[in-house]
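input
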Amino acid sequence: MKNIPPLDAHAILKKYGLRADKKLGQNFLQDDKALQKIVKAAEISADDFVLEIGPGVGSLTRYLAASASTVTTVELDLDLIPPLKAVLSPFSNVKIIQGDILELNISDIIKTPNYIVAANIPYNITSAIIRHLLESQPKPRRIVLTIQKEVAERICEQPGDLSLLALSVQVYGMPSLQAIIPAEAFHPVPKVDSAILRIDIYDEPLIEKDLLNTFFKLIKAGFGQKRKTLRNSLSSGLHISTEKTESLLKQAEIESMRRAETLSIEEWKRLCQIFNLQK
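output
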C-alpha cells in the first residue's frame, strides 16, 4: 500500500466552513491504523472494483484507491463534495457520486459482479444499508462495514440468541467481527465503540429464492413480540389461530413453546416450506 499521509477531518471541515451533521450520523473515521484494518479485512487486490458508501472527507477512500483498480464512492451530503474532490484529486481511479445509496439502484452504479463493498456507515441506517446491499444485483462477494460494536456482535450471534437482523444477514452470507475500533478514532467522537464487520456473501442464499418472501414474513412475525413463544408470536404476527400455528410448527418438527431467537436458518426453512404448502 502506498504511503498515505494522515488526514485531519476537523481541519478539513473547518477549511470549508463545515461541521459534522448529526442528523446524517456523520462521524469521520481518521485513525490510520483503523483505516488500514478495514482495507486488510476487505482483502482488496489490484484488479478489484470497490463500492464505498459515505466517504465523508475521503479518509478511507484514499486507502481503497491505493489498493483497488477502481473505487466508486457515494456521498449523500452535497456540502462534502468539494472537500472530497480536493482530498481525492491525486487518485485517478475514484468516481464520486452524489446521492442517497438507499435511493439508488446498485445496477446503475456497479456493472462488475463480485465487487467489494467497504465503508464506514452511519449507525442510524445500518440495517437499511445492509439489506439494500444484500438484495442488490449484481451482488458483492464481500461486504466490510464499520458499524456500532453492539450491532456487529448481534449480527454475528448463533442460534440461541439470534435476532431479526442476524437472520436477515446470515441467510445471505457469513458474518465475522474483524476488529474493534475505539470511539476516539472518529471525529466527532461518538458515544460508543465501533467494530469492523465482514460479510462473505454466499453464491446463493441459504433459503431458496422462491421462499425468501415467506422467510422474511415468518421471521418478522416470529420476532414481532419479544419474549413470546413461537405459538403466540406467529399467531399474532400472521393473524392465524394458535391451533393452526401449532399444526404448522408440529409439521416442521419445531416445539411450539420455543422462542424465535432459538431457531436455526434450517428450521426456519422447514417452516417456510410447510407454510407455503398450506396456502
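quick obs: The mean pLDDT is 95.
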